[in-house]
Amino acid sequence: MSRPVGNRPRRAAYALISVGVASAFAITSLPAAYATPSATAVISEVYGGGGNSGATLTRDFVELGNAGSAAYDLAGYSVQYLPGAPSASSLWQVTTLNGSVAPGGRFLVAEAAGTGGSTALPTADATGSVAMSATSGTIALVSGTTALTCRTAADCAADGRIVDLVGYGSALVREGSGPATGASNTAAVARGAALGDTDDNAVDLSAGTPSPVNSAGQTPGSGDGGGDGGDGGGDPTTPGTVRVHDIQGTTRLSPLAGQTVTRVPGIVTGVRTTGSKGYWIQDPAADADSRTSEGVFVYTGSATPTVGVGDSVLVSGKVSEYYPSSTSQSVTELTAPTATVLSSGNALPAAVTVDATSVPAAYIPTAGGGSIESPALEPAVYAQDFYESAEGMRVAFSDARVVGASDAYGELWVTVKPDENATTRGGTLYSSYDRPNTGRLEVMSLDTTTSFPSADVGDELSGTTTGPLDYSTYGGYNVQATQLGTLVDNGLKPEVTRRQKGDELAVATYNVENLDALDAQEKIDRLAHGVAVNLNSPDVVALEEIQDDNGATNDGTVTSEATLKRFTDAIRAAGGPRYQWRYIAPTDNQDGGEPGGNIRQVFLFNPKRVSFTDRAGGDAVTATSVVKTRKGAKLTASPGRIDPASDAWDNSRKPLVGEFVFHGETVFVIANHFTSKGGDQPLHGRYQPPSRSSETQRQAQAAEVNTFVKSLLAADRNAKTVVLGDLNDYEFSQTVTTLTEGKVLKPLITTLPAAERYTYVYDGNSQTLDHILTSPAVTHYDYDVVHINAEFADQASDHDPQVVRIDVSRCRKG
User: Fold this and answer.
1) Got the DSSP string for 681-718?
2) Distance in angstroms (rounded) separating the CA atoms of residues 513 and 418
3) How far is CA 319 from CA 2, 531, 692, in A?
4) Nearest residue to 60 (alpha-carbon basis) of 179, 183, 207
5) Which is nearest to 293 in space by CA: 345, 253, 340, 344?
6) 782 φ, ψ to 5°?
7) What's the 3-state SS for 23-89?
8) Which end of the chain has the smaller Cβ count within 10 Å, N or C?
9) Measured distance CA(13)–CA(728) in Å, rounded
10) What is the Cα–Cα distance from 297 to 277, expressed in whole angstroms?
11) Helix, strand, or coil here: 162?
C-alpha cells in the first residue's frame, strides 16, 4: 500500500531481500570443529518459513539454548545469517543481542515476518529483520556485532568469534559432515531437549514442527507474540510498563517490532492532519541511553487525529517499522492506535539542539553495501545515527541558512553547520562520495493555516525552528516544524554573464526541462530570457530535453519544429538573435524520458556569427564517423549521432554531433544527455555505502563519447572540440574520468574555484551534473556557470546553464 507524507505520496512500504544465489565455492574437505562442543550456549532451533505459504507462524526465528549451569551473558553478541549458497558478494546479516540465557533456558530471536501464517511468536527477547530462507541457510551465534566475512565452512571454522553455527538444507557453510536437513515452510531444524552439540549439524539437529520458546518459557499462544507490554488488563489511566525508549531501542529497528504495546505514556508534540495522518508523542522522562529516542510517530491512517499538542496521553498500538521505499531506512511507528487523553495544556519536553556542535562530522556507518539496521547506534560518531537517535523527538535549530530553495511541496533545506562546504552564493557544496554534508536538514511545516515561505538559497530562517524529527524517502531526516523561524531574504539574484567579444565563439548548454510546443507561454518566455539575457545570446546553444511537438501525448509524433519555432521566437522577442536549429528526431519512444515526449538534444546557432556545416546522412539509427582530409577532420554526417546502435544508448538519449565554422575555423560540438540516476540507492538509505547502479550505463556512454573524440583527434590532433550537456554525474565521478581518459578532454568545471563548482541543487546539496569539456587545442577560453534556476524557489528549469567563450584565433594550431 502507499501512504502520503505531507503533500507527497509515500511509496510502497515493503522491501524485498533476495537470498539463495548460486555459489561460487566448493567444499573440498571437511572443516575442523568450530570449538570444543558447547556445554553452554548453542543455537537450539532455526526456522525460516515464517509467514510463508502453508506456515502457521507469522515470522522467522532463531532460538538459543543454554545447557550450562550458569547464565550465559549475550551483551555484545549477535546472531548472523548467510544464504545457503553464498556468492562472492553475499553478506552476513546481523541481529544484535542483549540480555542473557538462563541455565537450561531459551532465548528467542524474532526475524522477518511474512504475509501468511496465523499465529504470532511468543514475545521475542531480541528482534531483527532478516528474511531467512525456509529451506537453506546458515545461522551463526557470534561474540561481537561486526558482520562476519567468511563464506566457506573452512574459513568460518577458523573464525574464533563464532560460538556456534548451524547450516541447514543444502548450506555450504555448516559444522561437520553436512547441514541439518528437512527445513521447509512448515518445518524447523532443532536440537533435542538435552541440547547436544557434537559440532556436526547433520547429527545434532533434525526437522520437526517449529516450537519457539522465549526466556519466560512462553510458547506460541501463551506469550501472544504481541503481548500487551506486560500489563495484562490494567487501569486504563495507568501507564503500562513499556516506554517509548523501549520501543525505539538502540538500533534502527525496534526490538518490539510486531508486538502490541499498551498504554505507552507521552506528551503530544506535533499533529499531522494531511497526507500521512498521525501525531508524535514524547516521553519527558528520558532514560540515560543517548541511543534510544524518546519520541515516536503514532500513525492514524486516514483518520484525523483527535489529540492536540500538549496533551498527555496513553497510547496502545502495534509497533511497526514503516519503509517509505525499498532502499530507505524505516520509521518506527505505533499503528492501529487507541489513545486516552489524561490532561491537556502540558509543557512540551525540551527539544534536542541540532547545531554544528551536536551533529558529528562523519555521515553514516558502512556495511559493505549491506544494511546498517542491526548494529547499535553511535550518535556521537555519525550524523545519521545522531538523527536516528532523535527520531520522533522534538528538535530545534536557530538562525539556519537555506541551502535548498522552497519547492511546490512546501519543503526547503537548511544547514545547521554554516561553515560546512559553503558555496559563494550561500549553498552547501557536494564535493565527494566520501564526505556527504552532515548539516543538511529538510524542513516542512505542520501549520496548515499559514503559507509556507518562499525561500531561495542563501536566505535565512532566523530565530528558532522546532518540531518533531521525521524521516522520508525524499531526502531522509526532516523537521516537521510546529514553530518555523522567520524568513530573512538575503537578496540572491540571477546571474548575467558577459557578452562574447567579436573574436570569441560562445558555446552554451542548457537543460530546458521537458520543453514542448504545448507549454505555457510564461515558461517559454522565461527560458528564452535565460538564453537572450542571462547567457547574453551565445553563438551556439546545445539544448537538452526538447520534447516533440505535442509533448507527452504518445501518438508517434517525433518532430520538434513547432516547439523550436515557439522557443526561438520568444528568444528573438527577448532581444536575442534569430536562431536557426539542427537536430535528429529520435525513433518514437526509444530515447527515454517522459513516455511520448521523445526528448532530444538540439543545436541552436546564430547564423550571423557562426555557420553550420550541413552534411546529409544523419538519422536516428545511422552513426556519424570521422574522416581525415587534407584540411583536417570532418564528419560523414552533420548533424549526426554517435553509434546509436550501441547498447550504451538503450532507452537513452544519443549524442548529437555538429560541425560548425567560426572565423574560418572548424569547431566540433557534441551535445549529450546521459542516462539519469534513477535506481540508485539514496545517500541516507539503509544500505551503505549506497549502490549507484545507474553509473554502469553512464560509464559506457562516456566511453563511447571518449572513443569518438579520440577519432577526431586521430584525424586532426588540433581538432577544436567541445563536449557538453547534462551528464547526470559529478566532476569527481567515474563517468567523467572515463570521458576524459587519455587526457583528450578537459572538464572546465574543475577550472573554477571549488565553491563555484555546481549547476544543480538536490536535497540541499549544490552539485555538478551539467558539464562543458574541451579538447587540448582549445587553449584560450573563458568559462562561466550562470546561476539562474537551481538556487531559486521560482525557477524556469531545475538546471543552471553554462557557457564557454573560445578565442578560436589564438587556439593551438599545427
Assistant:
1) PPTTSSBSSPP-TTHHHHHHHHHHHHHHHHHHHHH-TT
2) 31
3) 18, 55, 32
4) 183
5) 253
6) -135, 125
7) CCCCCCCCCCCCCCCCCCEEEEEEECCCCCCCCCECEEEEEEEECCCCCEECCCCEEEEEECCCCCC
8) C
9) 28
10) 10
11) strand
Reference 83, options 48, 35, 31; nearest CA is 48
Please tell me what DSSP assigns to residue 638.
B
Tell whether the torsion through CA atoms of 148, 150, 152 and 158 is positive or negative.
Answer: negative
Which residues neighbour 697 within 8 Å (Cβ) at sequence distance 6 or greater? Answer: 648, 650, 652, 674, 675
> pLDDT digits over 705-716, tens only?
999 999 999 999
Paired strand residues for 782? 805
Task: Please write the tens of the pLDDT for every residue from 633-659.
Answer: 999 999 999 999 999 999 999 999 999
Cα separation, 250 vs 99, whole angstroms: 13
Q: Which long-range contacts (CB under 8 A, 24 or more apart) does 678-685 make?
A: 681/327, 682/325, 682/327, 682/328, 682/473, 682/476, 683/363, 683/364, 683/436, 683/476, 683/763, 684/328, 684/329, 684/364, 684/384, 684/475, 684/476, 684/477, 685/327, 685/328, 685/329
CA distances from 386 to 377, 391, 468, 570 (A): 8, 9, 14, 51
Distance CA 377, CA 368 (A): 17
Could you check whether the bond before residue 595 is cis, i.e. omega within 30 degrees of 0? no
Report d(CA 766, CA 428) in Å as an integer: 6
Q: What phi and psi values does residue 240 have, to the nearest 5 degrees?
A: -75, -175
3-state secondary structure of 403: strand
Q: How far is CA 284 from CA 317, 346, 388, 611, 704, in A?
A: 20, 11, 18, 73, 60
pLDDT value for 27:
28
- Which pLDDT value is given to residue 71? 86
pLDDT tens-digit map of 441-499: 999 999 988 999 999 999 999 999 999 999 998 899 999 999 999 999 999 999 999 99
Q: Could you tell me the CA-to-CA distances from 645 to 582, 620, 655 in Å, in that order?
A: 21, 9, 12
- Helices (H), ranges, 152-194: 153-157
Distance CA 63, CA 260 (A): 21
pTM (predicted TM-score): 0.76
8-state DSSP, 751: G
Tell me the C-alpha distance between 565 and 576, whole Å.
14
> Which DSSP state fits 810?
G
Q: Are 604 and 583 in contact (CB under 8 A)?
A: no
Which residue do the cell numbers 490532561 mark?
343
DSSP string, 763-792: TTEEE--EEEEE-TT--SEEEEE--SSTT-
Please, which pLDDT band fits residue 14 given cuts at 50, 70 and 90? very low
Any idea what DSSP says for residue 531? I
- Give all strands (DSSP E) within 550-680, no chain letters: 580-582, 600-605, 611-612, 626-629, 632-635, 640-641, 656-662, 665-673
Cell of 613: 556545416
Grid cell 510498563 — which residue?
Answer: 241
pLDDT of residue 500: 98
Q: Let me know if 194 is exposed, middle or buried by CB neighbors in 10 A (0-12, 13-18, 19+).
A: exposed
Question: What is the C-alpha to C-alpha distance for residues 107 and 61, in angstroms, rounded to an integer?
Answer: 10
Which residue, chain included where needed, has cell 553436512? 178
Nearest alpha carbon to residue 790 among 413, 332, 448, 375 = 413
Look up residue 651 and give its three cell numbers: 532507452
Three-state secondary structure of 300-330 = EECCCCCCCCCCEEEEEEEEEEECCCCCCCC
Using CA of residue 511, residue 516, residue 522, residue 528, what is the dihedral sign?
positive
**Between β-strands 781-785 and 802-807, what pairing exists: parallel, antiparallel or unpaired?**
antiparallel
Q: Terminus-to-terminus CA distance in the chain, angstroms?
A: 66
